[in-house]
Every structure is written in structure tokens, then in C-alpha cells.
Write a structure and sequence with these properties.
Blueprint (H helix, E strand, L loop, with lengths): L2 E10 L2 E11 L4 E5 L6 H8 L7 E6 L2 E2 L5 H5 L2 E4 L11 H6 L14 H13 L15 H15 L3 E5 L7 H13 L3 E5 L3 H7 L2 E6 L2 E6 L1 H4 L2 H8 L4 E4 L6 E4 L1
Parallel strand pairs: 3-8, 3-9, 6-7, 7-8
Antiparallel strand pairs: 1-2, 1-4, 4-5, 9-10, 11-12
Length: about 250
């Protein structure tokens, strides 16, 4: 599934937050959005998964206007993992993951054997099978993040939008989660803070600075000392790791 974004704009109270955002995510790509806090990464993603309504711009999935789809139709195509998920009531882990099946059902449809199997498999992917009956609100931040990814996996879409998916996770679970996402072989657009994780997992990067696309290219093209200094104001050394053959940044 291919995502094409053209001239996306959004303002809060008439103050522009993102302007003329143009980006492409080709089928099967893992594309990263990087940039300082407040640069507009999450705002871009919220417009794409329709938590916000853009002021201007066109977003197409495989040539189809995303904003002409119903929310349910869009949810069968795009799965989302956000930084935080505030729930007014408590649910079990299994119930949260089962919510990922909702876009594929009619209003009063119950869970089928296939739905239950998909939920079990999604939990198994994250090593959380034994937590299915635990209360979601009693989990740690990292455990909640893994549950939200399991829900997105259960949603069974070809495109994932991830907003800081490694938030709250220790380094072991960060790598496990991104390895899993990579292994799904779906199209991914992810906002990431960690430049080394972005270099390790992303095929291409877009840097957002002051609400606009500043640069785009491969990690090798984007993660240079000059660009890092221009965007973050930080001096960095960049080299190719001898084992991973990926760009590595030290500050």
C-alpha cells in the first residue's frame, strides 16, 4: 500500500503548525519522521490517521483519497500506535487487543473463532499471551505500548502509522518491537526520536523542522554532522558501524 501526501497544512487557532508537507511512503517501505520536539511530527501523523482535520492538502492511499473514506473503511487499511492511550474505563489486555478487530465487523457482531485466533497470535508476537486477562490500566507504560502494537497487529492492515512506538520501552523491548514491525512486511510510517534506531530500521527519512520538511533521503544522506547540527543544534560524529553496516551517531 502506497501513501502519497501533498501540501498538507494544519493550524491551531490560526497559527500554522505544519505547512506544505509532501511525502511518499512506497509499498513495503519503513519510512521515519525525525526532528526536534515541537517540530510537527505528531501533528503530521494525527492528520494522516484523522485525529485532526487538515486545513489543506491531499492524502491518497493507493491513489484513493483517504479523507473520502469512512473512519471504519480507513481503519481497515491503516493501523495506528500512538504515544499514549487514555481510557475512561478499565479493560483487560485481551479486550484491548480484540478492539483491533472492530473495523472488520458489523455493529452487533460478536467475536468469531478467527477473531480469537488473531488476537491470540497478536499477543504471542509480543510475548504477552499470559497477560491477556490482566487489567490494562494496571500495566507499566512499556507494557501498555506493547499491547497497543498487538491491537494494531490484530487490526490486520497493510499500513502502520507509529508515533514514537518505542516510548517507555527499555532497549531490549525497543529492538524487539521494531524487529517485529519490520518482520510484518507491511508499509510503515513512524515518528522516531532516537536517530540510531531511525538509522537502523528506516529505509528513508524525512526531517521536519519548524513545521516543514527540511530534508529527505536515506539515513546515510540525512544523518550527517552538518544536518544534525542544523536541525538539533548538536555536534555529532557519524560513522558506519562495522557489524550492522548502518549509520551510527554519537553526540
Amino acid at each position: 500500500m502506497k501513501l502519497q501526501v501533498e501540501n498538507l497544512c494544519f493550524a491551531y487557532d490560526h497559527k500554522p503548525v505544519i505547512e506544505d508537507i509532501c511525502l511518499t511512503v512506497n509499498k513495503g517501505e519503513f519510512v521515519g519522521l525525525i526532528g526536534p520536539n515541537g517540530s510537527g511530527k505528531s501533528t503530521v501523523l494525527k492528520n494522516l490517521y484523522r485525529a485532526l482535520q487538515p486545513d489543506a492538502g491531499i492524502v491518497c492511499l493507493d491513489g484513493e483519497n483517504l479523507f473520502r473514506l469512512t473512519y471504519k473503511q480507513a481503519a481497515t487499511k491503516i493501523g495506528v500506535v500512538v504515544q499514549e492511550n487514555v481510557l475512561p474505563f478499565d479493560f483487560s489486555v485481551g479486550e484491548i487487543v480484540a478492539m483491533g478487530r472492530s473495523p472488520h465487523k458489523k455493529l452487533f457482531d460478536g467475536d468469531t473463532q478467527k477473531d480469537r485466533e488473531i488476537v491470540r497470535n497478536a499477543l504471542a508476537c509480543l510475548g504477552m499471551e499470559e497477560m491477556a486477562h490482566r487489567n490494562y490500566l494496571h500495566l507499566s507504560g512499556g507494557e501498555k505500548q506493547r499491547v497497543l502494537l498487538a491491537r494494531a497487529i490484530a487490526q490486520d492492515t497493510d499500513f502502520l502509522i507509529l508515533d514514537e512506538p518505542t516510548n517507555h520501552l527499555d532497549i531490549g523491548h525497543q529492538l524487539q518491537l521494531l524487529d517485529l514491525v519490520k518482520s510484518l512486511q507491511v508499509t510503515v510510517l513512524a515518528a522516531l526520536h532516537d536517530l540510531n534506531l531511525a538509522a537502523m530500521y528506516c529505509d528513508r527519512l524525512y526531517i521536519i523542522k519548524d513545521g516543514r520538511i527540511y530534508k529527505a533521503g536515506t539515513p546515510e544522506e540525512i544523518l550527517t554532522p552538518e544536518i544534525i547540527y542544523d536541525v538539533y543544534g548538536i555536534r555529532a560524529d557519524v560513522f558506519l558501524h562495522p557489524v550492522t553496516k548502518k549509520v551510527t551517531v554519537t553526540f
